[in-house]
Amino acid sequence: MGRPCHFALFDLQPAFRLDLAQLSARYRELAKTMHPDRFADAPERDQRLALEHSASLNEAYQTLKNAPRRALYLLALRGRELPMEVTVQDPEFLLQQMRLREELEDLQDSADVAGVAAFKRRLKQAQDELDAGFAACWDDARRREEAERLVRRMQFLDKLSHEVRQLEERLDD
């Protein structure tokens, strides 16, 4: 990778488990020192570099603060880019996805606020379990396929979690 590693920008070792509060604080600190506005009177080259650095920092932060994106990035650092299209050789999870989607649709149709809250808690628990599983195997070459399967599951639950938050907002209105 030509650009500095996302972890290096934050003086971190590549790892799945991160202190997100610390990451956020470090991001704000770095963003302040590199903000393009601070270079408004600087030569054009310095302005451009500040803008590029600011964009890189922002991209790194967005990647590292999101568990599935961080997981994909770690696999990429180990030389394994996951194809974006998901070839699902995970029938058990496919079935679980369909059930979760149907359950969310039912909750939406019934506008069940308490049900949505309970669904969200179960989803968070499932995400925590996937995170723990990925943390245990991502750096072990012999468990590469398992890590990749877990990332795909993480991506799905992350997307579903986003849809749950949108549903909550609509039900709150």
Automatic annotation (TrEMBL):
GO CC term, one of those recorded: iron-sulfur cluster transfer complex
A single GO molecular function term of this UniProt record: ATPase activator activity
Domain called J: residue spans: 5-77
Cross-referenced InterPro entries: DnaJ_domain, HscB, HscB_C_sf, HscB_oligo_C, J_dom_sf
Keywords: Chaperone
SUPFAM superfamilies the record matches: Chaperone J-domain (SSF46565), HSC20 (HSCB), C-terminal oligomerisation domain (SSF47144)
Domain of life: Bacteria
GO biological-process terms attached to the record: [2Fe-2S] cluster assembly; protein complex oligomerization; protein folding
Subunit structure: Interacts with HscA and stimulates its ATPase activity.
Similarity annotation: Belongs to the HscB family.
Function recorded in the entry: Co-chaperone involved in the maturation of iron-sulfur cluster-containing proteins. Seems to help targeting proteins to be folded toward HscA.
PANTHER family noted in UniProt: IRON-SULFUR CLUSTER CO-CHAPERONE PROTEIN HSCB (PTHR14021:SF15)
Protein name: Co-chaperone protein HscB homolog
Protein species of origin: Aquipseudomonas campi
Gene: hscB
